[in-house]
Amino acid sequence: MATKSKDRSVGRDATPPIQDLAELVHYTPEEVVANRWLPFTARTLRDKANARQIPHSKAGGRITFRLAHIREIAEMGDARPFNKPPKSA
């Protein structure tokens, strides 16, 4: 019986840089609040996530937030000034 040999060296050098790994870390609502990354309570973050009002991950049935989610939530609160039309003479 012949066994097929697989080249496993292809993915060994494909390790993402450390800064990319930080983007993969999942934070609990309590960690987000403890680090003061968002102006919400842990309960509010859970409620908004369950209502699908904010981006989040729900892998394994737990609500977590990656840095991309936290940035997006923070940007949701940004307000832009209105552009007033020029006054007529």
Structural class: mainly alpha
Q: Indicate the proportion of strand residues.
A: under 5%
* Low-confidence segments: none
Mean pLDDT over the full residue set: 85
- Describe the biggest sheet? none
Radius of gyration: 22 Å
Distance between the termini: 92 Å
Tell me what you see in this structure.
- By secondary structure, the protein is mainly α.
- The protein contains four helices and no strands.
TL;DR?
This protein has 89 residues and is mainly alpha-helical.
Give the helix/strand layout.
Blueprint: H1 18-22, H2 29-34, H3 42-50, H4 67-76
Give the tags.
89 residues; mainly alpha; 4 helices; 0% strand
